[in-house]
Amino acid sequence: MTGRSHRAHRAIVTGWNLAIAQGRSYSGPGVGSKVHGEDGSLTNPTATERLVFEAAGTWAADALRLAADPSTGAEATRKGEPFGDPFDVVTPADGIIERYLRDEVRKRFPDHGFLGEEEGGANGAHGWLWIVDPIDGTLNYSTGLAGAAASIACMEDGELVVGAIADLSGGRVYRSMRGTGTILVSDGTGESVSEPSSSPAGAARIFLEFGWEDLDPVMVGTIEQLATKQLRVIRMVGGAAYALLNVALRGGCMLGIGLRIWDVAAGIVLAREAGREVRFWDAGSLVHLIVGSADDVRELAPVVERFGSSRVAPVG
Q: Are 179 and 35 in contact (CB under 8 A)?
């Protein structure tokens, strides 16, 4: 990415990249601007959007079930063994869940495209594309840490429409649709509206997510710059989807550098419908982003612009 220019964009996607040259940021409708009937039913979505929304919730619950099944396999191996990045790992569950979701999309929406982290994919007809990370935070998942999630999003004509996140440690599925201002949560026994909030403690958090695991000058420089900004509590959970979910539900902000579209697509939908502001930068096949309050975005944008422009190789 060295020497490349980066432009800020709205929560719209071209092809597989969060990269539209129009606009600088996107603010969702926020809590209170719901377009629901009194019975909680959606009133505006198209028939396809309704089907996509229901499917995303069902499939996220299926991903949760598969990830929890001991027979699926959580033992991690290095991608590209024996020469791959020692921290870039994959489990049998990653492949099983992605193949399951790919097959389900093919059966239910044969004209839709599918892009998954493990096996790639292609755009479909009529502008519909599913974007899936079967397990975001694989290292956490394989070692029993919180912070792993299955991320399922769908966009139409480049705009994110639906997002669903399965919190693999919490055992819950969260989903949302554009323009509703609502996040639904299911624990397997029922589904209800999850009301986003932002306490002083929640607002003080900043989640940092990088597209690599090894400590390097970009990570260190980013943290050093944050020390000159408003006082915040740093959290690095190792899963962008999980971080975005927490910002959506409880406030604070998230700063990500060098991520992939499948890491953030579902989380962006949930965060914007919770009223958080989203700003991101085109980095070719990568994306940098800030999600939080308008003040967070304004203050932290220079940090991303400085350190997101290049990946500095590890020292030594």
A: yes
Close Cβ partners of 195 (under 8 Å, ≥ 6 residues apart): 31
On whether residue 316 sits in a domain, the answer given is no
For residue 7, pLDDT over 70 is answered with: no
Is residue 138 within 8 A of residue 76, CB to CB? The reply is: yes
**CATH number of the domain bearing residue 93:** 3.30.540.10
Cβ-based burial of 71 (10 A; exposed 0-12, middle 13-18, buried ≥19): exposed
Contact 18, 33 (CB under 8 A): no
Co-location of 207 and 225 in the same domain: yes
CA distance 261 to 121: 13
* Residue-range definition of the domain harbouring residue 178: 47-194
Angle between the 217-226 and 294-307 helix axes, to the nearest 10 degrees? 140
Q: What is the pLDDT of residues 35-76, one digit of tens each?
A: 333 333 444 678 999 999 999 999 999 999 999 998 886 666
- Residue range 206-222, pLDDT digits in tens: 999 998 888 888 899 99
Distance CA 268, CA 279 (A): 10
The CATH number of whichever domain residue 211 belongs to comes to 3.40.190.80
Q: Is the pTM of this model over 0.70?
A: yes
The pLDDT of residue 74 is 66
For helices 240-250 and 261-273, give the axis angle rounded to 10 degrees: 10
Rounded to a whole number, what is the distance in angstroms from the first to the last CA of the chain? 20
Write down the pLDDT at residue 214: 80
